[in-house]
Amino acid sequence: MASRTFDFSDTSETSGETGKKPRGAVGKEAYTYEVYYQDSDCADEQHPILIIEDAAKTLVHHVSGRFYRSDDRMSFEYGRSSDQLYAAIKGIDARFCELLYWLADNHMDVRLSGHIVGEGYNVYKIRAVDAAGLRRLTSEDGFLQNVIQRLLESKPVEKKEEEDPLEPSCVAEDLRMSDLTGMENFLKVAKTTLPENIQEWAKRNLMMARSNSISVDERRHAMRSLAMMLNIHWQGTYFPPIDPVKAREILDENLYGMDYVKQRIIETVIQINRTHTLPAYGLLLCGPAGVGKSQIAYAVAKILQLPWTALDMSTISDAEALTGSPRVYSNAKPGRIMEAFSSAASSNLVFIINELDKAEAGSNGMSPADALLTLLDNLGFTDNYVECTIPTAGVYPIATANDKNRISDPLMTRFAVIDIPDYTSEEKKVIFQQFSLPKVLKRMQLEQEECILTDEAAGEVVAIYAGQPGVRDLEQAAEHLAAHALYRIETEGVLSVTYEAEDIRRLLP
Fold this sequence. Notes:
Largest sheet: 6 strands, antiparallel, barrel
Shape: globular
Helix content: 25-40%
CATH topology of the largest domain: Rossmann fold
């Protein structure tokens, strides 16, 4: 859909046609461009950032120049200074209006890439270049691509979008904002990509960071908080359906056997296919060490197509480590939860809470794990350092634990609990032969024919570690045997090494 917005004057007899025009001239006829809304995952010639009038089809694939606007018109100006040409703006993606105004007001030289579609030049790429239009300006273009990417990921009024095109690689560079000018410019051109409460919060913190009436520490805290919040990509909470067959394949790749566990996991997340929101309950994976709880969590993140971040509760004894310390202290800092958001750079993520049962109560007798309750309730999380409520509807928590009896009842009620049993001896033997040993050989760049274990030898490995839960010890045994085989191949000149049961008893403790 489209909405008519601004009128811009045009002195040419045929309004909107590409042609010559002196800078600043004002005409009597009004040129009206349209603001359009679209639902697309990328900018291309069918889903352009903007459309330039070009009935004469004179614009080429790449064209360099500047956007120009006055009170009565907006155009793209290009060509030599002695032979200046202009092209009227025909339409703009609603999300990019403020960006184009900013480019015009700051007289930035840009190179547009596009294609002729009908009587318009559909622009799908904007790069910051030097005045000659030949060289990309690394710093300016890095900022510009960051803004374009964030705007494409944002919802205009209805839909969410994504991506920006870049010649060598899409956005492989680290485009995090750290300087105050960059953050201020971002708020000018892309503040609508932030939740409303964070927009107001960002304005206040930007004023604090620029203020000379407060202490240096307060300004530093404001700038650090601002950088953390602006570097998070704030996304919508619509989640596409998952493919249960593909989900099962992902789990099978990461977990041997345990059909019941895999079925429960898929049943828990499949509700996304109807609600298009994350499940009301996170997952609590309980079981002995080494059975693959963390691997399951990573697999779920892959199923949901979300980034993940991890928090180790065994290292935390104070709730303040999770929720941050107030800015009144000079050494104040954000909590681990806020740092995890910033590290993931996304508001939609899988939050993996490792060893939830290992969090020890502090001096006040309270478990720091209870500070997670607001995060798990999806009502928003407030960090004491940042001093702003973060939307958490896009956060899916997955916790791991060895002993669920050490977890408080309020926390337990926030999770769908899945008990993961230890493997049987036969299952461990299959895992060692088909997963652990091949994985180690591949990592050490050994062929399977170079390190061979007889069936009895594999059984002996499992028997030696029968008293240990999980399969971590089996992978360490595979590492030991592969290294021993490689040593013999390199020093003795043998082509392969075969291990019998008695060799295993001699080599492994």
